[in-house]
Amino acid sequence: VVSDRAADPALAVVAEAFRSFEKPNSPSVRVVIAGEATDSGQKVHNLRLAVGDADPQSAVFAFVDTDARPSLGWLQSLVAPLSDESLGAATGYRWFVARGGIAAHLRSVWNASIASALGAQRDKNFCWGGSTAIRRETFERVKVSESWRGTVSDDFTMTRVLQDARLPIKFVPQCLTPSFVNSPHAN
Questions:
Q1: How far apart are CA 68 and CA 155, in angstroms?
Q2: Where are the alpha helices (DSSP H) in 22-142?
Q3: Does pLDDT of 143 surpass 70?
Q4: How far, CA to CA in Å, does 29 sit from each of 35, 52, 174?
Q5: Contact assessment for residue 161 and residue 144, using Cβ atoms and an 8 Å cutoff
Q6: Does residue 183 carry a pLDDT above 60?
Q7: Domain ranges of the chain
Q8: Which CATH architecture has domain 59-182?
Q9: pLDDT(175) > 70
């Protein structure tokens, strides 16, 4: 788990969630406090520090945004396609669930048109940073972290790097994650 600040109230929620679901052989959880970004967007900065601090035995990096609400089988579904070593990454996407007025509904419709473009044509898919898995070996070989330096977009950059390496991206429909949004008219 990565945050830009130790006082992030979400960290207490994460800690409580892991305590309540803890079982023998549960994965360990580490918190990385990334601090304020100076040379890239905050999310990219956070991700670069998190992967740099990952357990050396981690074989896969899986990314999920805080607004996503993945299903119980999300991680297993997202990682499973990576057994095909010809793949660059596996990705889901968000489904905005509108709450509120016309702006929220327009955002949901706009986003649905993007989601509908993902599918079987792996060379046309893109990584959505809120639901993506990549083998660590691939991540390091194509130098994703180095490519993130100085950028704002984690997902567009990862997509470009994988496309440049001619590594396809598999869309996993089971990894479509709801994102509940309130879009007041001012947005």
A1: 15
A2: 42-52, 74-79, 102-115, 136-141
A3: yes
A4: 19, 15, 24
A5: yes
A6: no
A7: 59-182
A8: Alpha-Beta Complex (3.90)
A9: yes
